[in-house]
Amino acid sequence: MFRPASAMKMKMLLCRRDLARSTVLVCSLLLSIANGSLPAATDSRPAERKLLYVAEPGIRDYLEYGGHGVLVFDIDQGHRFVKRIPAAGLDEKGRPLNVKGICANAATKRLYVSTTKTVTCFDIATEKILWEKAYEGGCDRLAISPDGKVIYLPSLEKAHWHVLDALSGEVIRKIITNSGAHNTILGLDGRHAYLAGLASPLLRVSDTRTHQVVREVGPFGNFIRPFRHGCPSHGVGLTPDEKELWLTDAHNSRLHIFDVGLLNFGTNATATPPLQVASITLRDQPGWVTFSLDGRYGYPSTGDVIEVATRKIVAGLKDETGTDVQSEKMLEVDFAGDQPIRAGDQFGLGRVTRP
Questions:
Q1: Inter-residue contact 76 to 47 (CB < 8 Å)
Q2: Are 156 and 138 in contact (CB under 8 A)?
Q3: 230 inside domain
Q4: Are strands 171-176 and 330-336 parallel, antiparallel or unpaired?
Q5: Neighbour-count burial of 147, counting CB atoms closer than 10 A to its CB (0-12 exposed, 13-18 middle, 19+ buried)
Q6: What integer pLDDT is reported at residue 353 of this predicted model?
Q7: Among 136, 157, 176, 229, which residue carries the largest CB count within 10 Å?
Q8: How far is residue 257's CA from residue 3's CA, in Å, rounded to a whole number?
């Protein structure tokens, strides 16, 4: 039996031993973290998913290139067909109308498809149709502001554009240019809308705060391309990094690629013309081209999927029946879980940020 002093001494030794073990464990833990030998903490954020939304019929009113509806493809899974979202946009006899444009905004969770007569608004998350409205003079290729609040909607080659409240579809203002309204682009900063018509060599620029034309660019030698069918180069786009320009050639079923890397903006800008660096044979005649948000893929309207870095065709869009899908109206929407977090554009827009 230990005397009280001996018992106290033993207790102190045990405490020191436990403290030493704890110190060793803590030091080992810190070293493991520093050396990266421990598994990373579990990220509770939902995984992102990149989807391509394709509106049909997107080549005039031809149903043989994917039928009717909004077709969804999984970009990261080889552009595999995921589903078909039922759409509106029917004429008085119940036949699908020619789709003229597509746009979306992740913040408002809205997707819009225009036909020759109407605009349909979808909830991206639920895929339900929120409203469909017809507009005076018909509709063409619409564009949405970066904040998702305003849509510029050209009439169908008539004298005017409608400016819409994007949430309700109500008309805010009517802009009359008498230029055969057709295609529309909103700048990525949301400050200006660019209005091109089929009956004028001038490009009108609207201030999106006042919705009034504040500038005219031109005159050009003819109607502004790629804003017109009936020519072999109806589609043109910049890669998101703005290093290449991709030009469609319907006559030869090709995409021609030009290096525009020397066309730097700012004080060191040069006048060097774009240099053609490649030509890609497609499965049909292209009339449009756009890109994935990260610039990894190019999407001509033929449904070919092109890897931008290698300029190789790596996939072809096909619907649930195996039919080749074609459309001039497609864009990317990215999701975190079941919620949209970013949306692309139907146009091939350069996305380099400048002061």
A1: no
A2: yes
A3: yes
A4: unpaired
A5: exposed
A6: 67
A7: 157
A8: 93
pLDDT for 30 beyond 90: no
> Does residue 34 or residue 265 have the better pLDDT?
265
- Give Cα separations from 197 to 61, 74, 138, 145, 165 (angstroms): 21, 35, 14, 20, 22
Q: Are 281 and 288 in contact (CB under 8 A)?
A: no
Of 292, 305, 288, whose CA–CA distance to 334 is shortest? 292
Pick from 199, 107, 74, 206: nearest CA to 153: 206
Q: Is residue 29 scored above 80 in pLDDT? A: no
Q: How many CB atoms lie within 10 A of CB 244?
A: 24
219: preceding bond cis by omega (within 30 degrees):
yes
Task: Count H helices and E strands in the chain, helices first.
Answer: 1, 25
Q: Is 146 exposed, middle or buried (0-12, 13-18, 19+ CB in 10 A)?
A: middle
Q: Are 66 and 31 in contact (CB under 8 A)?
A: no
For residue 137, what is the domain's CATH number? 2.130.10.10
Q: Whole-model pTM? A: 0.85
Task: Please check the confidence at residue 148 and state whether its pLDDT lies above 90.
Answer: yes
- Specify if 34 maps to a domain: no
Range of the domain at 145: 48-343
Residue 18 lies in a domain: no
Residues 91 and 98: their CA atoms lie apart, in Å, by 10
Instruction: Output b/e per residue, 257-281; b: 16+ Cβ within 10 A.
Output: bbebeebeeeeeeeeeebeeeeebe
Give the integer Cα–Cα distance in Å for 21 and 287: 72
